[in-house]
TrEMBL record:
It is an enzyme of class 6 (ligase). Cell wall formation. Catalyzes the addition of glutamate to the nucleotide precursor UDP-N-acetylmuramoyl-L-alanine (UMA). This is UDP-N-acetylmuramoylalanine--D-glutamate ligase. SUPFAM superfamilies: MurCD N-terminal domain, MurD-like peptide ligases, catalytic domain, MurD-like peptide ligases, peptide-binding domain. Pathway: Cell wall biogenesis; peptidoglycan biosynthesis. One of its GO terms (cellular component) is cytoplasm. ATP binds at residues 119-125. The lineage of its organism: Bacteria, Bacillati, Bacillota, Bacilli, Lactobacillales. It catalyses: UDP-N-acetyl-alpha-D-muramoyl-L-alanine + D-glutamate + ATP = UDP-N-acetyl-alpha-D-muramoyl-L-alanyl-D-glutamate + ADP + phosphate + H(+). Residues 314-428 form the Mur ligase C-terminal domain. One of its GO terms (molecular function) is ATP binding. Belongs to the MurCDEF family. Its EC number is 6.3.2.9. It comes from Enterococcus ureilyticus. Signal peptide: none annotated.
């Protein structure tokens, strides 16, 4: 990593722990900063804080006391999950105290190029595709995944070498805390309405996403979803060179035409050869192909890599087959749009959908057109009655209400026949029955494997 001196003897407050906070605290300590860590969790239930204390880092736990700001800190490094409405954060803003997220630290110390990926949907799949493409047939260095995908950016940047690439998934929360961050290549997969409880408005949410390009220059590349007029309009305000991708028209980048994928008129592969289904995954692949081409990856390597890519866990992930029935885990579909995208990739006449979860007060009228023609739907969780109503409106003939994901798998199998697909794509958050979408997806996979053992 670059041995920067910017933080030597500066008082820095790291607000909130989890993986990124721990990594930021350790890095700043190594860079000579006078670090104070403040975490809401009590010390005796906080192994991360206990670990940092053994390193000689000051730790304040059990709340976020505003009085900390009397200590003349030079800046705050904030966990992305802590909202700006938090009283301590709001006070810091009123004091004009710089508030960063650890992705800014990662950029400052990184010796290698950074490829940044953001967007409402498809970030993780696109990031994973890019990592696989850049590592395929690579002779030196490694493409290292980082950021919102689960690997703290500052920790990855600390160990990365000059011949590596950092492929960094970036949330809107993280991008609100950057100052000098400048990726060599940036991707915006799409922008829809999301996280309004955090950002306050769609305008502020889009502004946060668009920040990924704020320091980019003419020699950098910004890959944009040209299907979205909003991104086309925003493209007029950046210095970066634009590489568009589209599934609707021929563009000067990556595009789909007659079910074939091209990059600047060069045929890459058939859309049907992609290892993951769905129109949204074609968009993800177009974005990833654009990065690969900019980085000089040969066409045959791109095609072979994307043919065998079967998805990211919990994101339209193919998990197995039982007696001719294919099972897909899309537990990450925690909203209607994500489920609509997943449904677009399957033959509805042979599709059994598992859906339901936390009731956030919304109706499912938007989902009705995407439910038309599916073979059966199995519903669970707080929203099962609302989804039941939507399924009736869509004309779904076979509807079953059940207890949870595990019982839904058994019910779906009972309704299924050879060559059917059983898809978990809940259209809802998991928190009514499962702590997170990962555990919900794991429950689906485990139930499938138990079913496989029974059917042997």
């Amino acid at each position: 990593m670059k041995k920067i001196t910017d933080y030597e003897n500066k008082k820095v407050l790291v607000l909130g722990l989890a993986k990124s906070g721990v990594s930021a605290a350790k890095l700043l300590h190594e860079l000579g900063a006078l670090v104070t860590v403040n975490d809401f969790k009590q010390f005796d239930q906080n192994p991360e804080a206990q670990d940092l204390l053994t390193l000689g880092i000051r730790v304040v736990t059990g709340g976020h006391p505003i009085e900390l700001l009397d200590e003349d800190f030079s800046l705050i490094v904030k966990n992305p999950g802590i909202p700006y409405s938090n009283p301590l954060v709001a006070k810091a803003l009123s004091m004009k105290l710089p508030i960063l997220t650890e992705v800014e630290l990662a950029y400052q110390i990184a010796e290698c190029p950074i490829i940044g990926i953001t967007g409402t949907n498809g970030k993780t799949t696109t990031t994973t595709m890019i990592g696989l493409l850049l590592n395929a047939d690579r002779e030196s260095g490694t493409a290292r995944l980082a950021g919102n995908i689960g690997y703290p950016a500052s920790e990855v940047a600390e160990s990365a070498r000059a011949d590596d690439d950092i492929v960094m998934e970036l949330s809107s929360f993280q991008l609100m805390g950057i100052q000098t961050f400048r990726p060599q290549i940036a991707v915006i997969t799409n922008v829809y309405e999301a996280h309004l409880d955090y950002h306050g408005s769609r305008e502020e949410y889009v502004k946060a996403k668009w920040a990924i390009q704020q320091n980019m220059q003419e020699t950098d590349f910004l890959i944009l979803n040209w299907n979205q007029a909003e991104l086309q309009e925003l493209s007029k305000t950046t210095k970066a060179a634009i590489i568009p991708f589209s599934t609707k028209e021929k563009v000067a980048g990556a595009y789909l035409a007659d079910e074939k994928i091209y990059y600047k008129d060069e045929f890459i592969m058939l859309a049907g050869e992609l290892g993951v289904p769905g129109s949204h995954n074609i968009e993800n692949a177009l974005a990833a192909i654009s990065v690969a081409k900019l980085k000089g990856i040969p066409t045959d390597v791109i095609r072979q890599t994307l043919m065998v890519f079967t998805g990211v866990p919990h994101r339209t992930q193919y998990v197995g087959e039982i007696a001719g029935r294919k099972f897909y885990n899309d537990s990450k579909a925690t909203n209607i749009l994500a489920t609509e995208m997943a449904l677009s990739g399957f033959d509805h006449s042979a599709l059994i959908l598992l859906a339901g979860g936390l009731d956030r007060g919304n109706s499912f009228d938007e989902l009705i057109p995407s439910l038309v023609g599916i073979k059966a739907i199995i519903l669970f969780g707080e929203t099962k009655d609302k989804l039941h109503k939507a399924a009736i409106e869509a004309g779904v003939k076979t509807i079953k209400l059940t207890k949870n994901v595990e019982t839904a798998v058994r019910d779906a199998y009972d309704f299924s026949e050879k060559d059917d697909t059983i898809l978990l794509s809940p259209a809802c958050a998991s928190w009514d029955q499962y702590p997170n979408f990962e555990l919900r997806g794991n429950a689906f996979i485990q139930a499938m494997h138990q079913l496989k053992d029974i059917e042997k």
